[in-house]
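Example: 6-phospho-beta-glucosidase.
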Amino acid sequence: MSFRFPDSFLWGGAIAANQVEGSHIADGKGLSTSDVCPFGVFGQIVKRTNGDFNIKDIAIDFYHRYPEDIALMNEMGFSCFRLSIAWTRIFPNGDDEQPNEAGLAYYDKLFDELAQYDITPLVTLSHYEMPFNLADKYQGWASREVIGFFEKYARVAFARFGDRVKHWLTFNEINVTLHEPFTGAGLPRDCTEQMRYQAIHHQLVASAKAVKACHELIPDGKIGNMMLGALIYPLTSNPGDVLKAQVQNHDWLFFGDVQARGYYPSYMHRKFAQLGVSLDITDDDRQALKETVDFISFSYYMSGCASADPKEQEKAKGNMLEMIANPYLEESEWGWQIDPQGLRILLNMLWDRYQKPLFVVENGLGAKDQLNEQGVVEDDYRINYLNAHLYQVGEAIQDGVAVMGYTSWGPIDLVSASTAQMSKRYGFIYVDRDDEGNGSLARTPKKSFYWYKKIIASNGEQLSAPKPD
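Written out as structure tokens, the predicted fold is:
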């Protein structure tokens, strides 16, 4: 690729606390909603007892091994590292009067370590977890009280870490509550649409209040939202399919519309009427929502199709998304369709819609990596996947899209959110641990580690053009 990415472009990787840290009750940490889902986001919610096993309780032990892992990321040339704070390390129950100093001290050390290498932290306040006490006692985000608990947590984080952390995100994949209400909002899985959208409204207000707090407490900081980028194409050129795709894209774009524009889009008023949803929106809420994000961030793993034909709708599949398979695309081992050009399409769509800087904060390939006889993972499939997607990011930048950076998911093997497996590996760094929790936790760079290092060093210039069909 003859094109070089902008000098300001941030290169790196992304993780979530609940998938890497382990030490799930160490140093005063409370139980999170992730801790009671040992089988992944769709799995059974389990009441924890002493001595039971959850692979996330240790995960990859990033809690203790972060200096080694950050050193490896520095070796790759990372200029940015997206991570999350575990809310329950700071407020173990969510409604505590005072924050947990041991949790604050842990992240102090982590951010100091990143500063040693001049790696920019991009920090998510809540990534697929919240204090379980808030879900159990308050029905999660269905309660308006949780807005205040989150704002208090956000202000403590900004005040403590704002001298070292200038880039923030509020909620990871905020639109996931549409598909998995317990993971997204601490709601009962059989919640009504009224409860679901009222909880979403409370999250949107809380996000806006966190944006305002960030602007007040970190004047030189930037804070964005984070959406699950669920790009939907019409299955055919039939106008019914085109309209169906537009409606399904609106289902997730509505979150960005509120967070970037400061009010509910008109199409949602029709949807609420159709669903029989009547939101409790106060004047304070309306005022709070006017505080909009500085940039738009999103994950992108796959696209899908929509059809007005009921027979086609029966074929819908995906991870958490009801998507119809695209007949022109290949699939990963887990059935996720691979669509690099979709990333360019999505970047252009979001840029045209919002005219705010964009950040690709998750993109990666889960695969069953194997060490060969030489102790190396020859993950050319991952290199090909990431090269193809990054090439399209470069194309979007040349289209005129303002892209801040790219953090792959996840730079080191971690526990999968959807399946709670170690065998579904994403990283440039292999971690010796299996689905039963066996292994030394030793770190080994994969072939893709050295490839990504080369791409970063060349600022994207070493990316390969896609082969013609």
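The radius of gyration is 21 Å.
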